[in-house]
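Handout, section B. The chain below has 100 residues.
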Amino acid sequence: MRILVTGGAGFLGSHLCERLLKEGHEVLCLDNFFTGRKNNVAAFLKDPAFELVRHDIVLPILLEVDRIYHLACPASPIHYQYNPVKTIKTNILGTLNMLA
């Protein structure tokens, strides 16, 4: 199964990517690196079943996947208080873009 993980380079997303890869899935990790870090997924970059895409889900994107785990959101108070409008856009527009 080809699975998209938004916010895949974050703490939770990277662990989910690891689990999905171990289960034998193809994983497409989408992250804008606002709070996620490339080093969280660096161990997976050589895995042919893993793909990392830098993208902000506030902007539309067309992808073909079987399942989506939508974890993209600045989750800590420090990050979402720094830019509350960005947080709202990520939550609302990002979710709409993932559903489209």
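Note. Residues 57 and 97 are 7 Å apart (CA to CA). Compare this with the example in section A.
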